[in-house]
């Protein structure tokens, strides 16, 4: 299992619109091969910042499967308009 982590900086004043768009987009990612779970958390100190964590079975399920899919184009159309700047994504494994 790998964990995708992205700090999302949302254009100020569009937080509610982003949250609604994310609710619409969530079924897209949750239906993808290799998807395990996800969470979206809002920063308490800077309310335009969100932390997205997604667990995948493999790195390729995210980087090739999801990002290479037509579903990703739907995800992108719903959400990418809200980001400033575009988020950096990291992939992590638990330390044993």
How does this model look, in words?
The chain has 96 residues and is of the alpha+beta class. Helix content is 35%, strand content 29%. It contains three helices and four strands. It has helices spanning 15-30, 59-66, 70-79; strands at residues 2-9, 35-42, 49-56, 89-92. It has a four-stranded antiparallel beta sheet with strand order 2-3-1-4. Strand 2 and strand 3 (49-56) form a beta hairpin. It is globular. The two termini are 13 Å apart.
Strand content: 25-35%
- What gap, in angstroms, lies between the N and C termini? 13 Å
Number of strands: 4
| Main sheet: strand order | 2-3-1-4
In percent, how helical is the residue content? Answer: 25-40%
Q: Kindly report the average pLDDT value.
A: 97
- Count of DSSP helices? 3
Global geometry: globular
What's the order of the H and E elements? EHEEHHE
Report the C-alpha radius of gyration, rounded: 13 Å
Largest sheet: 4 strands, antiparallel
Derived structural class = alpha+beta
């Amino acid at each position: 299992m790998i964990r995708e982590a992205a700090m999302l900086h949302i254009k100020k004043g569009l937080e509610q619109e982003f949250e609604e768009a994310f609710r619409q987009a969530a079924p897209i990612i949750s239906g993808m091969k290799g998807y395990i779970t996800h969470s979206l958390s809002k920063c308490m100190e800077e309310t335009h910042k969100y932390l997205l964590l997604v667990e995948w079975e493999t790195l390729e399920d995210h980087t090739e499967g999801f990002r290479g899919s037509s579903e990703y184009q739907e995800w992108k159309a719903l959400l990418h308009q809200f980001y400033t700047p575009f988020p950096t994504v990291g992939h992590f494994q638990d330390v044993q």
